[in-house]
Design goal:
By secondary structure, the protein is an alpha/beta fold. The chain contains seven helices and seven strands, in the order E-H-E-H-E-H-E-H-E-H-E-H-H-E. It has a seven-stranded parallel β-sheet, with helices on both faces.
């Protein structure tokens, strides 16, 4: 029981790990003894984050554009050349787009759906052999999908493809959980509420105080909130949890009164 939440000695890949929620998860892993690979499209930002987190433990930058199959293949080949197993895959890389319904372009819809839904599936498919090498009945390999409460609720913002893409992410986690259970691989999704990041900066400027007041716990998410649930899902404590979608939103989804 003492080591129930220990993840020390594991190997993880966190996509979109250079900033925002991905960096929060990566920092939690590195600080708790996980050899953590991070990937993002911008090489300089990815390298800078890995250098910063390396003061806490082992963090390796592998920049890659996961919106393309070539980028996915490059990332998996790089990790496969260095590791014979992968304990934890965090599919976090994502995109959003805001525009009025009259002006919302097809290219934006396709970009969001590709990065948020298509890319995580094909990355998971490509990295399956490494996950299987780490998996056992007692300690399964873990797939953690980062969705959003916008995939559970309806956003006030005109981000028409984002919420549907995140609802698909949640369902993809459940689908993977079903199909990979016999390989001793679990799949779960985290549905964050509002966490300060570059992606959410405009939302915080426009609606931040309104959202805070509507949140039962009366605050926005903090890095340790995100790191905590990601550590739990990667630990022995969650070895019997699969197919779950966990809101991390201060109660906006599950505890907000309608009165």
């Amino acid at each position: 029981m003492r080591d129930l939440f220990s993840i020390e000695g594991k190997v993880a890949l966190v996509t979109g790990g250079s900033r925002g929620i991905g960096a929060m998860i990566a920092e939690g892993y590195v600080a708790n003894g996980v050899k953590t690979y991070i990937s993002s499209r911008k090489a300089d930002v990815c390298d800078e984050t890995a250098a910063r987190l390396s003061h806490l433990g082992e963090c390796i930058s592998i920049p890659s554009d996961l919106s393309t199959m070539a980028g996915i293949e490059h990332l998996v080949a790089e990790i496969g050349s260095r590791e014979d197993k992968l304990d934890i895959l965090v599919n976090n890389a994502g995109a959003t787009w805001g525009a009025s319904i009259e002006e919302f372009p097809e290219s934006a819809w396709d970009k969001v759906m590709t990065i948020n839904v298509k890319s995580p599936f094909f990355l998971t498919k490509a990295v399956l052999p490494l996950l299987e090498n780490a998996a056992s009945a007692e300690d399964p390999a873990r797939i953690i999908m980062v969705g959003s409460i916008d995939g559970l609720n309806i956003s006030q913002l005109p981000t028409f493809s984002y919420g549907p893409s995140k609802a698909a992410v949640h369902h993809l986690a459940r689908t993977l959980a079903s199909h990979l259970s016999d390989r001793h691989i679990t799949a779960n999704a985290i549905a964050p509420g509002l966490f300060p990041s570059k992606m959410t900066a405009a939302t915080i400027d426009r609606l931040g105080e309104q959202i805070r007041q509507a949140t039962p716990l009366k605050r926005h998410g903090q890095p340790e909130d995100m790191a905590g649930v990601a550590i739990y899902l990667a630990s022995k404590a969650a070895s019997f949890v699969t197919g779950a979608v966990i809101p991390v939103d201060g109660g906006l989804t599950g505890a907000k009164s309608t009165l």
